[in-house]
């Protein structure tokens, strides 16, 4: 768990060893088979004491095994009931108190507790490719091993606030500029650290002990911290950790080190027991779990190897296509971008170039690294012939089955036989698109989220005949584009939009019954969603859903004469969104939708008196009794109907576990990470509670099938509401209680 060795005559080397990332585990595992294993923290403490006791050792270097310093505390340990004794903070103090110089040799990563160990060292040397950070805030915690007290003393309050409240990882070069490390090397970092340790022997260490240093003063510290707190609270949308990080740093500016450490511990314990940390740590592991995809037929990374993508093509340079091209260029994959005519091509080219210029400005190495003016990297064309040599095509034209089929039939003819054909769609049937090609096994859905170069989520949809190699290739491409790929099955709306449908439907029904758009949005935004359903609908454009409902025959000319206004196929239907569209209210783009905006294309939503009186007239016309609807009902009807659909999706095998649904919602639909995703949230509310509420609402609204509890939810409750990790194992088990 940590190896002790002699690096040079007088220098002891303590090497943290816990693959794959040298997490600092502090659990004494009690299972008989592994009870002998030493925790990393115990081993680190033993190494320090051994070095201290050995008179021939004059200095110490701490490094990590396999070119990685440490990814910090073992995250699994925070939710384990078997935690024992050892804390990291006291060990960091022990390092700092050492009378022998201690040098951290930082390679790969030094994150969280790993960086806190390095902050206890008297000197820090980093490899030029190393990355550092205190990402505890991203898992609902704060740097609880004295990091909130040492970092401001080393780099000053503004930089410490930035690093601790965002959790961002910074490169070694930035760490050097901030003074976080003393030296950056390109050579062997451990050898450089040993050399430095040798030179330091006998030198005074007092000035290098951060706990003894004052926090650098700012002329307006109090005002600066209050402003920072206000900013952080606004950004956090109900997440506690960023706010408590600021409080801990504030303590560093006001109190002596030891008192600051006590405050840090107090705040850390609040977070640890808040429930938010558990949700965010679940989200951390959920993201890694979905990366290890499987399908119901058993395909997985083990059975399939991704094929190399040396050149890709994107068809259609609308909003989505532009973002996809940008993502591919950023991933350094040569791209051909195709449009139907020169006018659209030029428009698309200009827009892509603008996006790329902006992205390049954000990058450390700038535009040179992207090299997007080089035609070998990015080419624009109107002729399908340029697609002959590409390895993969992503079609991103608008959602029209006939058009997509025409394109795929052409692609099947023109592209080389081994090329993969992907469609960017948010709902359409992958099998139908694949059916017009001679290679359905190489056809796959890739549902990007707008803006595609920013949003991390990528739903990857396999059809009946999609091969495991095609899935593996799409997943690998997602990884290269730094996206979170989630493999899901083929059904209308896939996972994300299918769950969204009952949610949006409830939101509109609530308007019929008495709510205003701003009431519904506020309740859901207070819950933590980034944007409520009506603000979202105005942003995306109401006309998008209107077109789809017309295609489905739910409204418009194809609607059978005599169809009741508020009923379709025997169930409740609300024509409210259609009526708004008929009045040209498409949302932000027309300056009016569920809200009003300062102008067409405006972004500031203002409650609209016109909408309020329109809703009154509508309710009167349909003789709907208006009632006051409280926040609780808004949340329950919108969120529980979404969760209910999630249970059906799991039961149908569209996703292989609840984590998939949660990762989709956190990364693509603005679900608050500190609530862990909808299915995790359901597990915290308690499945019997969700079931009881759905039963209640479905009795009140028997004409809304989406409120009828899913059979799988009922089954889980009947089986005693097992832990979320065990849900899928109960899917096919018989229950005599049902
Ligand atoms: C007692 C101390 C009290 C308080 C103070 C300290 C608090 C902390 O230190 S909290 C932890 C802070 N650290 C982090 O948040 C880092 C989290 N990890 C990452 O960001 C990334 O994993 C990485 C940058 C370190 C590596 O990324 P990548 O190369 O893409 O690999 P993976 O993410 O797939 O990770 C590989 C593998 O390692 C597991 N893992 C990573 N970090 C931890 C960790 N800190 N604890 C436990 N496990 C960790 C990760 O789950 C992967 O494992 P699986 O493949 O089995 O899922």
Annotate the secondary structure layout.
Elements: E1 2-8, E2 11-16, H1 40-53, E3 59-64, H2 88-97, E4 102-106, E5 109-111, H3 113-120, E6 123-127, E7 131-133, H4 147-155, H5 157-166, E8 170-171, H6 172-178, E9 183-185, H7 189-200, H8 221-236, H9 241-254, H10 257-272, H11 276-291, E10 312-315, H12 319-330, E11 335-338, H13 342-362, H14 367-370, E12 378-381, E13 392-395, H15 401-414, E14 420-423, H16 430-434, E15 443-448, E16 457-462, H17 468-480, E17 484-488, H18 496-513, H19 517-527, H20 533-540, H21 542-551, E18 567-568, E19 571-572, H22 576-582, H23 609-621, H24 631-651, H25 658-668, H26 678-685, H27 687-700, H28 711-718
Parallel strand pairs: 2-3, 3-4, 4-6, 5-7, 6-9, 10-11, 10-13, 11-12, 13-14, 14-15, 16-17
Antiparallel strand pairs: 1-2, 7-8, 15-16, 18-19
This protein binds ligand L2IWW6SD.
What can you see in these coordinates?
- It is a single chain.
- The chain has 738 residues and is of the alpha/beta class.
- It folds into 4 domains: 2-264, 2-enoyl-CoA Hydratase, Chain A, domain 1 (Alpha-Beta Complex); 275-295 and 629-738, N-(1-d-carboxylethyl)-l-norvaline Dehydrogenase, domain 2; 312-488, NAD(P)-binding Rossmann-like Domain (Rossmann fold), CATH 3.40.50.720; 515-621, N-(1-d-carboxylethyl)-l-norvaline Dehydrogenase, domain 2.
- It contains 28 helices and 19 strands.
- An 8-stranded mixed β-sheet has the order 12-11-10-13-14-15-16-17, sandwiched between helices. The protein has a 6-stranded mixed β-sheet with strand order 1-2-3-4-6-9, with helices on both faces. Strands 5-7-8 form a 3-stranded mixed β-sheet.
- A hairpin with an 8-residue loop joins strand 15 (443-448) and strand 16.
- Helix 4 crosses helix 9 (241-254) and helix 12 (319-330) crosses helix 13.
- The radius of gyration is 29 Å and the shape is globular.
């Amino acid at each position: 768990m940590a190896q002790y060795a002699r690096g040079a005559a007088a220098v002891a080397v303590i090497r943290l060893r816990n693959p794959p990332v040298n997490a600092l585990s502090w659990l004494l595992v009690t299972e008989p088979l592994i009870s002998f294993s030493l925790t990393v923290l115990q081993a680190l403490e033993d190494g320090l004491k051994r070095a201290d006791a050995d008179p021939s050792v004059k200095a110490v270097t701490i490094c990590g095994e396999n070119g990685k310093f440490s990814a910090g505390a073992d995250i699994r340990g925070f939710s384990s009931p078997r935690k024992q004794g050892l804390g990291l903070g006291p060990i960091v103090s022990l390092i700092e108190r050492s009378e022998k110089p201690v040098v951290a040799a930082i390679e790969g990563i030094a994150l969280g507790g790993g960086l806190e160990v390095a902050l206890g060292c008297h000197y820090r040397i980093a490899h030029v490719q190393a990355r550092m950070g205190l990402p505890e805030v991203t898992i609902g915690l704060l740097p609880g091993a004295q990091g909130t007290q040492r970092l401001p003393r080393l780099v000053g309050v503004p930089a410490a606030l930035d690093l601790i409240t965002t959790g961002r990882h910074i490169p070694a070069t930035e760490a050097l500029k901030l003074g976080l490390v003393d030296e950056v090397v390109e050579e062997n970092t451990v050898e450089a650290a040993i050399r430095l340790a040798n030179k330091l022997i006998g030198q005074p260490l007092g000035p290098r002990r951060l706990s003894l240093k004052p926090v650098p003063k700012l002329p307006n510290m109090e005002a600066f911290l209050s402003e920072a707190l206000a900013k952080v609270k606004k950004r956090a949308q109900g997440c506690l950790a960023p706010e408590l990080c600021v409080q801990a740093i504030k303590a560093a500016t006001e109190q002596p080190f030891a008192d600051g450490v006590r405050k840090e511990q107090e705040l850390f314990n609040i977070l640890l027991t808040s429930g938010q940390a558990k949700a965010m740590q679940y989200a951390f592991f959920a993201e890694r779990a979905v990366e290890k995809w499987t399908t119901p037929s058993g395909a997985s990374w083990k059975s399939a190897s991704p094929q190399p993508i040396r050149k890709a093509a994107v068809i259609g340079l609308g909003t989505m296509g532009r973002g996809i091209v940008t993502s591919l260029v950023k991933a350094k994959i040569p791209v051909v971008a195709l449009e139907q005519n020169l006018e659209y091509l030029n428009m698309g080219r200009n827009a892509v170039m603008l996006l790329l210029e902006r992205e390049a400005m954000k990058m450390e190495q700038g535009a040179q690294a992207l090299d997007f003016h080089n035609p070998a990297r990015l080419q624009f064309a109107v002729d399908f012939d340029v697609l002959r040599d590409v390895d993969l095509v992503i079609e991103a034209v608008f959602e029209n089955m006939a058009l997509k089929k025409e394109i795929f039939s052409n692609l099947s003819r023109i592209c080389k036989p081994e090329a993969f054909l992907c469609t960017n769609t948010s709902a359409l049937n992958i099998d139908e698109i694949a059916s017009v090609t001679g290679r359905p096994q190489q056809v796959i859905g890739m549902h990007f989220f707008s803006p595609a170069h920013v949003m991390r989520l990528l739903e990857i949809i396999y059809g009946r005949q999609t091969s495991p190699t095609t899935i593996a290739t799409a997943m690998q491409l997602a990884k290269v584009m730094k996206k979170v790929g989630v493999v899901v099955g083929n059904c209308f709306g896939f996972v994300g939009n299918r769950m969204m449908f009952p949610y949006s439907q409830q939101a509109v029904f609530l308007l019929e019954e008495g709510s205003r758009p701003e009431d519904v949005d506020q309740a859901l935004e207070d819950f933590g969603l980034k944007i409520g359903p009506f603000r979202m609908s105005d942003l995306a454009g109401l006309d998008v859903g209107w077109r789809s409902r017309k295609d489905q025959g739910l409204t418009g000319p194809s609607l059978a004469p005599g169809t009741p206004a508020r009923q379709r196929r025997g169930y409740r239907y609300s024509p409210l969104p259609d009526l708004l569209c008929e009045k040209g209210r498409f949302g932000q783009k027309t300056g009016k939708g569920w809200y009003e905006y300062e102008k067409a294309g405006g972004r500031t939503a203002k409650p609209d008196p016109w909408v309020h009186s329109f809703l009154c007239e509508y309710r009167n016309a349909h003789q709907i009794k208006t009632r006051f609807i409280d926040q609780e009902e808004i949340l329950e009807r919108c969120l529980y109907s979404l969760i209910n659909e999630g249970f059906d999706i799991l039961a149908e095998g569209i996703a292989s576990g609840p984590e998939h649904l949660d990762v989709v919602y956190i990364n693509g639909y603005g679900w608050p990470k500190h609530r862990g995703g909808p299915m995790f949230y359901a597990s915290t509310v308690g499945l019997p509670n969700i079931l009881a509420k759905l039963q209640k609402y479905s009795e009140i609204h028997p004409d809304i099938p989406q409120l009828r509890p899913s059979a799988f939810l009922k089954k889980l409750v009947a089986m005693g509401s097992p832990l979320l990790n065990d849900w899928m194992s109960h899917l096919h088990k018989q229950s005599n209680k049902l």
